[in-house]
DNA sequence: CCCGTTATTTACCGTAACGCGAAAAAGTCA
DNA sequence: TGACTTTTTCGCGTTACGGTAAATAACGGG
């Protein structure tokens, strides 16, 4: 693809867990070209300026496979909300509650959104190709994640609404089985 | 605290979702001091070099409260494993399966670790102070997260082990209720 | 023919957040 | 003296970004 096409289709592919504007895409393409991983070939167009379509070189494909065989690094959570919770007594509760409610809505929205995509792409819940299996699994962890965080937001809201000490064993047991 | 003390205690406090080595801590302390948010006072010690203990200024405390009232930004997942899944057909399956198994073990370990901390800090599952409530909630989302990812790893392993198309409605239903 | 619009790429500026390797300074103990 | 701990600092680099703008190239309307 060309940089322009990548920029346009980025959001609808891996855009849910990775953001990149067009500048960064062009930058990364330049880096890859400099390293010999990709090659750009001009494609003449009528009615529009020509575009520079990049394709993997043999070297690039090898590097890709090599990268694909590397162990992944489990990412950190890195949510500033968690830092706030770590020092909960240093902050006002009300804005935090508002934030938690906004977050709850946000994660519910994302969950619904992923669900729509899932129903659209995999109405039977079945992936027929290897590529589809990967995309389906990506959707699955997205769904799980949003549902998990949304549930946690509810728990957090009820915990900070009551005076401390009212988060009881009962809640724990419900959570540990849920 | 002093930079040295912060560096030592960082891992056992918010260290699970935020990493910082001592250099970065000193750097951030310098920034905060330059902005007037903290003040350093030398504390004489016997048997060791003196230390520079930093304390919040009134300005710093105000800035902290202001920061605490800001809406949080929901972080992206940003797991390179997900990128691999998005282009699953471009990679070899075996290293990916190995990676998934390592990840499964990793997240199970973290889950067990959080559970131990939870049982140690909150043997009754009850937080008695506001500060404890925050820490408990942090542990809770950590537990939820590790359990969720571990379950997803199992699902992913079974999905990539079978030929495509065998990830059935049955699995979906189990997940959507689980 | 100028002008505005879309498509496509590039240049140049900056920032935050980090890692690495080293070393300085101050003290202890063998 | 030399090795080791404690505490702080310096100077180098990188990755991964964001913003603003401009440079092309082609189209169509007035």
Molecular structure report:
- The structure is a homodimer of 178-residue chains.
- The first copy, chain A, has 178 residues and is mainly alpha-helical.
- Chain A folds into two domains: 3-68, Winged helix-like DNA-binding domain superfamily/Winged helix DNA-binding domain (Arc Repressor Mutant, subunit A, Orthogonal Bundle), CATH 1.10.10; 80-163.
- Helices cover 61% and strands 7% of the residues of chain A.
- In chain A, strands 1-2 form a two-stranded antiparallel ribbon.
- In chain A, strand 1 (38-43) and strand 2 form a beta hairpin.
- In chain A, helix 1 packs across helix 2 (22-34) and helix 5 packs antiparallel against helix 6.
- The two termini of chain A are 44 Å apart.
- Chains A and B meet through helix 3, helix 4, helix 5, helix 6 and helix 7 of A and helix 3, helix 4, helix 5, helix 6 and helix 7 of B.
- The structure holds a DNA duplex (30 and 30 nucleotides).
Q: Tell me about the largest β-sheet of chain A.
A: 2 strands, antiparallel
Q: Would you report the number of β strands of chain A?
A: 2
Averaged pLDDT of chain A: 88
Structural class per helix/strand content of chain A? mainly alpha
Shape of chain A: elongated
How much helix, percentage-wise, in residues of chain A? Answer: 55-70%
List SSEs of chain A in N-to-C order. Answer: HHEEHHHHH
């Amino acid at each position: 693809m060309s940089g322009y096409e990548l920029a346009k289709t980025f959001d609808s592919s891996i855009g849910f867990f990775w953001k990149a504007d067009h500048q960064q895409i062009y930058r990364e393409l330049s880096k890859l070209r400099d390293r010999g991983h990709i090659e750009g070939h001009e494609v003449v167009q009528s009615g529009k300026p020509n575009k520079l379509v990049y394709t993997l070189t043999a070297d690039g494909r090898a590097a890709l496979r090599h990268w694909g065989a590397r162990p992944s690094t489990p990412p950190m959570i890195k949510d500033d909300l968690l830092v706030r919770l770590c020092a909960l007594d240093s902050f006002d509760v009300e804005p935090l509650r508002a934030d938690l409610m906004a977050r709850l809505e946000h994660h519910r929205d994302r969950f619904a959104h992923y669900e729509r995509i899932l129903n659209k792409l995999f109405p039977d819940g079945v992936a027929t190709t290897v590529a589809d299996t990967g995309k389906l699994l990506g959707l699955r962890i997205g769904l799980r994640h949003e549902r998990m965080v949304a549930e946690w937001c509810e728990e957090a809201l009820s915990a900070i609404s009551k005076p401390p000490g009212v988060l009881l064993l009962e809640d724990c047991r419900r959570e540990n089985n849920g």
